[in-house]
Protein backbone atom coordinates (compact mmCIF):
# COMPACT_ATOMS: atom_id res chain seq x y z
CA UNK A 1 0.00 0.00 0.00
CA UNK A 2 1.45 3.41 -0.94
CA UNK A 3 1.34 6.50 1.31
CA UNK A 4 -1.82 8.08 -0.06
CA UNK A 5 -3.67 4.73 -0.15
CA UNK A 6 -2.72 4.19 3.49
CA UNK A 7 -3.96 7.68 4.35
CA UNK A 8 -7.25 7.03 2.53
CA UNK A 9 -7.68 3.63 4.22
CA UNK A 10 -7.35 5.33 7.60
CA UNK A 11 -10.35 7.62 6.92
CA UNK A 12 -13.64 6.64 8.44
CA UNK A 13 -16.48 6.61 5.88
CA UNK A 14 -20.13 6.28 6.83
CA UNK A 15 -23.61 6.98 5.48
CA UNK A 16 -26.70 6.95 7.65
CA UNK A 17 -30.37 7.87 7.48
CA UNK A 18 -31.03 10.55 10.05
CA UNK A 19 -34.21 11.58 11.83
CA UNK A 20 -32.55 14.28 13.94
CA UNK A 21 -29.41 16.37 13.63
CA UNK A 22 -27.20 17.68 16.40
CA UNK A 23 -26.06 21.31 16.41
CA UNK A 24 -22.62 20.09 15.28
CA UNK A 25 -24.18 18.10 12.42
CA UNK A 26 -26.22 21.12 11.31
CA UNK A 27 -23.11 23.32 11.30
CA UNK A 28 -21.09 20.70 9.38
CA UNK A 29 -23.89 20.16 6.86
CA UNK A 30 -24.33 23.90 6.28
CA UNK A 31 -20.59 24.23 5.63
CA UNK A 32 -20.57 21.19 3.31
CA UNK A 33 -23.62 22.43 1.39
CA UNK A 34 -22.29 25.93 0.84
CA UNK A 35 -18.92 24.49 -0.23
CA UNK A 36 -20.69 22.26 -2.80
CA UNK A 37 -22.82 25.19 -4.05
CA UNK A 38 -19.77 27.44 -4.45
CA UNK A 39 -17.82 24.73 -6.29
CA UNK A 40 -20.50 23.86 -8.87
CA UNK A 41 -24.00 23.65 -7.47
CA UNK A 42 -26.04 20.60 -8.26
CA UNK A 43 -28.19 21.13 -5.23
CA UNK A 44 -30.72 23.49 -6.78
CA UNK A 45 -29.18 26.52 -5.16
CA UNK A 46 -26.88 28.59 -7.32
CA UNK A 47 -25.59 31.00 -4.68
CA UNK A 48 -24.27 30.06 -1.22
CA UNK A 49 -27.01 30.42 1.39
CA UNK A 50 -25.15 30.91 4.65
CA UNK A 51 -25.31 28.87 7.81
CA UNK A 52 -28.61 30.17 9.22
CA UNK A 53 -30.65 29.54 6.07
CA UNK A 54 -29.13 26.09 5.53
CA UNK A 55 -29.69 25.03 9.12
CA UNK A 56 -33.34 26.08 8.78
CA UNK A 57 -33.51 24.15 5.51
CA UNK A 58 -32.27 20.91 7.07
CA UNK A 59 -34.49 21.32 10.14
CA UNK A 60 -37.43 21.75 7.75
CA UNK A 61 -36.50 18.66 5.71
CA UNK A 62 -36.68 16.54 8.86
CA UNK A 63 -40.27 17.66 9.42
CA UNK A 64 -41.62 16.55 6.02
CA UNK A 65 -43.07 13.03 6.24
CA UNK A 66 -42.34 12.06 2.63
CA UNK A 67 -38.68 13.11 2.82
CA UNK A 68 -35.89 11.01 4.27
CA UNK A 69 -32.48 12.54 4.80
CA UNK A 70 -29.25 10.57 4.39
CA UNK A 71 -25.98 12.02 5.66
CA UNK A 72 -22.46 11.07 4.54
CA UNK A 73 -19.73 11.34 7.14
CA UNK A 74 -15.97 11.55 6.82
CA UNK A 75 -14.18 10.92 10.11
CA UNK A 76 -17.47 11.51 11.90
CA UNK A 77 -18.20 14.92 10.31
CA UNK A 78 -21.21 15.43 8.04
CA UNK A 79 -19.79 16.21 4.58
CA UNK A 80 -22.75 15.60 2.27
CA UNK A 81 -26.31 14.42 2.05
CA UNK A 82 -29.09 13.15 -0.17
CA UNK A 83 -32.86 13.00 0.00
CA UNK A 84 -35.19 10.13 -0.72
CA UNK A 85 -38.54 11.63 -1.68
CA UNK A 86 -41.49 9.27 -1.48
CA UNK A 87 -44.73 9.84 -3.41
CA UNK A 88 -47.53 11.46 -1.41
CA UNK A 89 -50.31 9.17 -0.15
CA UNK A 90 -52.78 10.42 -2.75
CA UNK A 91 -50.49 9.28 -5.57
CA UNK A 92 -51.44 5.63 -5.37
CA UNK A 93 -50.73 5.03 -9.06
CA UNK A 94 -47.08 5.99 -8.60
CA UNK A 95 -46.59 4.56 -5.13
CA UNK A 96 -43.99 2.17 -6.57
CA UNK A 97 -41.61 4.99 -7.49
CA UNK A 98 -39.42 7.21 -5.32
CA UNK A 99 -37.02 10.01 -6.19
CA UNK A 100 -33.40 10.51 -5.23
CA UNK A 101 -32.58 14.20 -5.09
CA UNK A 102 -30.21 16.83 -3.66
CA UNK A 103 -27.24 14.47 -3.57
CA UNK A 104 -23.85 16.08 -3.06
CA UNK A 105 -20.55 15.64 -1.28
CA UNK A 106 -18.48 18.65 -0.20
CA UNK A 107 -15.46 19.20 -2.48
CA UNK A 108 -13.07 18.50 0.42
CA UNK A 109 -14.55 15.02 0.92
CA UNK A 110 -14.79 13.83 -2.68
CA UNK A 111 -13.06 10.83 -4.18
CA UNK A 112 -13.40 8.56 -1.14
CA UNK A 113 -16.43 6.67 -2.45
CA UNK A 114 -18.95 8.46 -0.21
CA UNK A 115 -21.36 9.32 -3.04
CA UNK A 116 -21.39 5.70 -4.15
CA UNK A 117 -22.20 4.68 -0.55
CA UNK A 118 -24.85 7.40 -0.28
CA UNK A 119 -26.70 6.28 -3.41
CA UNK A 120 -26.47 2.61 -2.39
CA UNK A 121 -27.98 3.41 1.01
CA UNK A 122 -30.84 5.41 -0.53
CA UNK A 123 -31.58 2.58 -2.98
CA UNK A 124 -31.50 -0.01 -0.20
CA UNK A 125 -33.96 2.03 1.88
CA UNK A 126 -36.26 2.68 -1.10
CA UNK A 127 -36.37 -1.06 -1.87
CA UNK A 128 -37.01 -1.89 1.79
CA UNK A 129 -39.95 0.55 1.78
CA UNK A 130 -41.39 -1.36 -1.20
CA UNK A 131 -40.46 1.06 -3.98
CA UNK A 132 -39.57 -0.61 -7.24
CA UNK A 133 -38.29 2.31 -9.28
CA UNK A 134 -35.99 5.16 -8.40
CA UNK A 135 -36.04 8.35 -10.45
CA UNK A 136 -33.55 11.20 -10.52
CA UNK A 137 -32.55 14.12 -12.68
CA UNK A 138 -29.34 16.04 -13.02
CA UNK A 139 -28.07 19.05 -14.91
CA UNK A 140 -26.21 17.89 -18.02
CA UNK A 141 -23.20 19.92 -16.83
CA UNK A 142 -22.73 17.66 -13.76
CA UNK A 143 -20.35 15.27 -15.51
CA UNK A 144 -19.13 13.55 -12.34
CA UNK A 145 -22.64 12.84 -11.15
CA UNK A 146 -23.61 11.54 -14.60
CA UNK A 147 -20.59 9.17 -14.58
CA UNK A 148 -21.53 8.00 -11.09
CA UNK A 149 -25.22 7.35 -11.83
CA UNK A 150 -24.54 5.64 -15.17
CA UNK A 151 -21.92 3.39 -13.53
CA UNK A 152 -24.56 2.43 -10.97
CA UNK A 153 -26.98 1.28 -13.68
CA UNK A 154 -29.25 4.34 -14.01
CA UNK A 155 -30.89 4.48 -17.41
CA UNK A 156 -31.02 7.83 -19.20
CA UNK A 157 -34.54 8.05 -20.66
CA UNK A 158 -34.84 11.69 -21.60
CA UNK A 159 -33.41 15.16 -21.66
CA UNK A 160 -35.28 18.32 -20.77
CA UNK A 161 -33.82 21.16 -22.85
CA UNK A 162 -35.00 23.89 -20.45
CA UNK A 163 -34.21 22.26 -17.11
CA UNK A 164 -32.43 24.95 -15.10
CA UNK A 165 -31.26 28.55 -15.27
CA UNK A 166 -27.80 29.10 -13.87
CA UNK A 167 -26.33 32.60 -13.94
CA UNK A 168 -28.32 33.64 -16.96
CA UNK A 169 -27.69 30.42 -18.91
CA UNK A 170 -30.30 27.78 -19.66
CA UNK A 171 -29.01 24.30 -18.85
CA UNK A 172 -30.51 21.02 -20.06
CA UNK A 173 -31.28 18.24 -17.60
CA UNK A 174 -30.88 14.49 -17.91
CA UNK A 175 -33.60 12.25 -16.48
CA UNK A 176 -32.73 8.77 -15.19
CA UNK A 177 -34.50 5.74 -13.77
CA UNK A 178 -33.43 2.48 -12.19
CA UNK A 179 -35.52 -0.51 -11.21
CA UNK A 180 -34.92 -1.88 -7.74
CA UNK A 181 -34.89 -5.49 -6.70
CA UNK A 182 -37.32 -5.94 -3.83
CA UNK A 183 -36.09 -7.52 -0.63
CA UNK A 184 -39.03 -9.89 -0.81
CA UNK A 185 -42.25 -10.40 -2.80
CA UNK A 186 -42.63 -10.09 -6.55
CA UNK A 187 -39.62 -9.61 -8.74
CA UNK A 188 -38.98 -6.34 -10.57
CA UNK A 189 -39.60 -8.24 -13.80
CA UNK A 190 -43.21 -8.84 -12.73
CA UNK A 191 -43.63 -5.11 -12.19
CA UNK A 192 -42.44 -4.37 -15.72
CA UNK A 193 -44.42 -7.20 -17.36
CA UNK A 194 -47.54 -6.10 -15.54
CA UNK A 195 -47.25 -2.45 -16.55
CA UNK A 196 -50.40 -1.13 -18.21
C1 LIG B 1 -21.17 13.72 -7.87
C2 LIG B 1 -20.56 13.71 -6.47
C3 LIG B 1 -21.71 13.52 -5.48
C4 LIG B 1 -19.56 12.56 -6.36
O1 LIG B 1 -19.08 12.50 -5.02
P1 LIG B 1 -17.80 11.60 -4.56
O2 LIG B 1 -18.02 11.22 -3.13
O3 LIG B 1 -16.54 12.26 -4.90
O4 LIG B 1 -17.97 10.32 -5.47
P2 LIG B 1 -17.33 8.88 -5.20
O5 LIG B 1 -15.97 9.05 -4.59
O6 LIG B 1 -18.31 8.04 -4.49
O7 LIG B 1 -17.13 8.37 -6.68
C5 LIG B 1 -18.18 7.69 -7.29
C6 LIG B 1 -18.03 7.70 -8.79
O8 LIG B 1 -18.22 9.01 -9.29
C7 LIG B 1 -17.40 9.17 -10.44
N1 LIG B 1 -16.37 10.16 -10.15
C8 LIG B 1 -15.96 10.59 -8.93
N2 LIG B 1 -15.03 11.57 -9.08
C9 LIG B 1 -14.86 11.73 -10.41
C10 LIG B 1 -14.06 12.60 -11.21
N3 LIG B 1 -13.25 13.49 -10.65
N4 LIG B 1 -14.17 12.49 -12.55
C11 LIG B 1 -15.01 11.60 -13.13
N5 LIG B 1 -15.79 10.75 -12.42
C12 LIG B 1 -15.72 10.81 -11.09
C13 LIG B 1 -16.77 7.82 -10.72
O9 LIG B 1 -17.68 7.07 -11.52
C14 LIG B 1 -16.70 7.26 -9.31
O10 LIG B 1 -16.62 5.88 -9.28
P3 LIG B 1 -15.17 5.14 -9.20
O11 LIG B 1 -14.43 5.77 -8.06
O12 LIG B 1 -15.54 3.71 -8.96
O13 LIG B 1 -14.54 5.40 -10.51
C15 LIG B 1 -19.82 15.03 -6.17
O14 LIG B 1 -18.86 15.25 -7.18
C16 LIG B 1 -20.74 16.24 -6.09
O15 LIG B 1 -21.28 16.53 -5.02
N6 LIG B 1 -20.91 17.00 -7.21
C17 LIG B 1 -21.73 18.22 -7.23
C18 LIG B 1 -23.19 17.96 -6.95
C19 LIG B 1 -23.84 17.00 -7.91
O16 LIG B 1 -23.52 16.93 -9.08
N7 LIG B 1 -24.81 16.23 -7.37
C20 LIG B 1 -25.54 15.24 -8.13
C21 LIG B 1 -26.76 15.78 -8.76
S1 LIG B 1 -28.11 15.98 -7.66
From TrEMBL:
Presence of keyword Plastid: no
Single Gene Ontology MF annotation: N-acetyltransferase activity
InterPro entries noted in UniProt: Acyl_CoA_acyltransferase (IPR016181), GNAT_dom (IPR000182), NAT_camello-type (IPR050769)
Swiss-Prot/TrEMBL keywords: Transferase
Domain N-acetyltransferase: 16-182
Pfam families for the chain: Acetyltransf_1
Cited PANTHER family: GNAT FAMILY N-ACETYLTRANSFERASE, LD18367P
Name of the protein in its database record: GNAT family N-acetyltransferase
Amino acid sequence: MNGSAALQAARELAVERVERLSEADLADLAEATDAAIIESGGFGWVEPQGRGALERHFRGVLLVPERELFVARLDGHAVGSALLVRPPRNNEAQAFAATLTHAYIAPYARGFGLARMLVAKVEERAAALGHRVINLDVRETQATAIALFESLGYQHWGTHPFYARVRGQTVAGRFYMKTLEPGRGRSTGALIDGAA
